[in-house]
Amino acid sequence: MQRRAFLGLALLGLGACTTAPRRQPAGARPSVPDGLDGPYRLDSGDKLRVTVFEQTALSGTFTVDQAGYIAYPLVGNVTARGLTTQELAGALTLGLKKGYLNNPDVTVEVDTYRPFFIMGEVRNPGQYTYVNTMTVETAVAIAGGFTSRASERGIEVSRRLNGKIYTGTLPPNALVRPGDVLRVAQRLF
């Protein structure tokens, strides 16, 4: 089935792309499927602020580790990868109800998002701190701008969603998400 990578990315709130759809070769990473425009999902590298009402010893900042867990007092390792902040708060609430607190009031917020990466024809390729509502154009500027050989049309993105890696092409005004890997291609002439 032919998928439209740019349409799936547009549904993620990233804007439309001007390139034509293309068929993915066998064994290639899938293009972003339609309808994955839901809430932000946690993954490795996210730093979370957990607050338990009137329980300062249980409140603090926790980082999602490489395995996708946070190490939380009394409860132990709690799966965070793939969950929303509300879902993680629910999991922590259930863990704390098991013999520790009668009616815990838990909130979880993202304190610092995981970084994004930009490679290819930019002056300073590498890993950068994600800023909320960042666009592709902003990401390129953070990386020092395009090199003289850069193709400025349609930046390739690789994105992990629900444990799978998807690829597509983004225009300059498209939104970047935490953990995205952007690649600026070299122009032909």
From TrEMBL:
Domain Soluble ligand binding: from-to ranges: 116-165
PROSITE patterns: PROKAR_LIPOPROTEIN
Presence of keyword Transcription: no
GO molecular function, one term: polysaccharide transmembrane transporter activity
Classification via Gene3D superfamilies: Outer membrane lipoprotein wza domain like, wza like domain
Keyword entries, A-Z: Signal
Residues of the Polysaccharide export protein N-terminal domain: 39-110
InterPro entries named among the record's database cross-references: Poly_export, Poly_export_N, Soluble_ligand-bd
Keyword Disulfide bond found: no
Superkingdom to which the source organism belongs: Bacteria
Name recorded for this polypeptide: Sugar transporter
